[in-house]
Amino acid sequence: MRLVSQFASVGSMSRAMTRTSSLLDQTTFRLSSGKRLQRAADDASGLVLSELARSTANGSRVGLRNLQDATSLAQVAEGALGETNALLQHARELSIASGNDALGQGARDALASEMEQTFAEIDRISAATGFGGKSLINADETLTFQAGAGENDQVQLEMRAADTASLGLNTSALATAVRNGDVGALDSMDSALFEVQGMRSDLGAFANGAAHSMQNLSVSLEATERSLSQIEGADMAREAMRFSQHQIMTRGQAALAAQANAAASHVLRLFG
To answer: What is the pTM of this model?
Structure first.
């Protein structure tokens, strides 16, 4: 009976050593990775919360990049409209210059030709302006940007065409008016200028709004990452203490197991 009891003690000690070794491995992982959660068994609810927080953080990072792209796009469009505005101002000046009877027909024809070239450049800018392969000011369009991790975290930008036809300019009639020294077409150019200035104002307002959205998203991302760290981060001081404790237990158990095995072997030799 004593021999059976001795063997039972050795088996119990072996199980204890296996458990301690497992705890030591777990503590080693936490110390090396800095993470408390390795698998769902460590903390099922904590793992769910950490994955939700990670998903939100990842979505926020992508949303920030989207907003940065949206801001860059708006700046490109606004820059192009700034040139369009300057060209319209120049066309208006040409129209005023033609209203001068001191000019001969040749001079007025030259002014009209320059006006036609000015309008052609406005149309070229409208067709050529783009961002990332997407045309910006050659058609009316609503652009949508995903600005966060949620389905409804979106911002929109209304884009309008800025070619001469869309701005309400009859370029042929305006050139003819310049040739005739007629400045009555100034109203149409003033309307086009007002339209372009409205577009630029909308783009500026969008860029300002996007900047505030990025700031808010950055704050939210920082809070989410802090929460994620608290959920899955290991308490390094506590884990270091456990590591030392498990190491001591492992060595002690190994020493006791060696003694138990030696005693059992001695008893068996007596029966040999």
So the answer is: 0.72
Nearest to 229 by CA among 33, 60, 89: 33
Structure tokens at 145: 């940007």
How many whole angstroms separate alpha carbon 98 and alpha carbon 81? 26
Tokens of 61: 């990072």
Looking at the DSSP assignment, which residues form a beta bridge with residue 141?
Answer: 159
Count of positions (residues) in the chain: 272
Q: pLDDT for 36-91, tens place per residue?
A: 566 555 666 777 787 788 888 999 999 999 999 999 999 999 999 999 999 999 99
Q: Rounded CA gap, 227 and 51, in Å? A: 11
Which fold does the domain 46-231 belong to in CATH?
Answer: f41 fragment of flagellin, N-terminal domain (1.20.1330)
Long-range contacts of 188-196 (CB under 8 A, 24+ apart): 189/88, 189/91, 189/92, 189/95, 190/92, 191/167, 192/88, 192/164, 192/167, 192/168, 193/85, 193/88, 193/89, 193/92, 195/160, 195/167, 195/168, 196/81, 196/84, 196/85, 196/88, 196/162, 196/167
Q: How far apart are CA 121 and CA 128, in angstroms?
A: 10
